Amino acid sequence: MADLGGFDASEVKDSEFEALPAGEYRAVISDSERKKTKDGESELLQVKLQIIEGPFKNRTIIDRFNLWNKNPAATTIAQQQFKKVCEAVNIPKPPDSSALHMKPLVIKVAVKEYNGNNQNEVKGYKAVTASSAAPVATATSTKPGGW
């Protein structure tokens, strides 16, 4: 048991953060960790992505890669997705996940509904280029294709 020191939930403001608008954002991986999956039988890499410029600067999004999944198909998909991260930061053989920290990249963010709430989902990664030198955070086209 832990003494909560008079904590009163009625005095705490609700979070004002809503899902980020769909679009592209310049970000960095600010933290990463290897975690067990919900079933406890596999592991994944969880990364915390921090937006580094624009009106949503310092907001974070979590992404997960099932790199060590008991299901080979899930592992293959995760490896293909994680490859895009490594290419975006130009580190094809990271010795550990911390090698990817604080390296700018562009993330493509979508909004999806989950249990009645809007949540963000990372749909792609690419390198920061001269054409992406201006602040990113543009609305995503609804046309198929692209990334």
Describe this structure in words.
The protein is globular, with a radius of gyration of 17 Å. The chain has a single domain (19-132), classed as OB fold (Dihydrolipoamide Acetyltransferase, E2P), CATH 2.40.50. It has a five-stranded antiparallel beta sheet with strand order 3-2-1-4-5, with helices on one face. The protein is mainly beta and 147 residues long. It is 12% helix and 35% strand.
What share of the residues lie within helices? 10-25%
The number of helices is: 1
CA-atom Rg in angstroms: 17 Å
Return the average pLDDT rounded to an integer: 89
- Strand line-up in the sheet with most strands: 3-2-1-4-5
Task: Output the CATH class name.
Answer: Mainly Beta
Strand content: 35-45%
Q: Cα distance, first to last residue?
A: 50 Å
- Shape, per Cα inertia axes: globular
Under the CATH scheme, the architecture is Beta Barrel
SSE order: EEEHEE
Instruction: Classify the secondary structure makeup into a structural class.
Output: mainly beta
How many distinct folded domains?
1
Major β-sheet annotation:
5 strands, antiparallel
Q: How many strand elements?
A: 5
Contiguous low-pLDDT stretches (5 residues minimum) are 138-145
CATH fold naming: OB fold (Dihydrolipoamide Acetyltransferase, E2P)
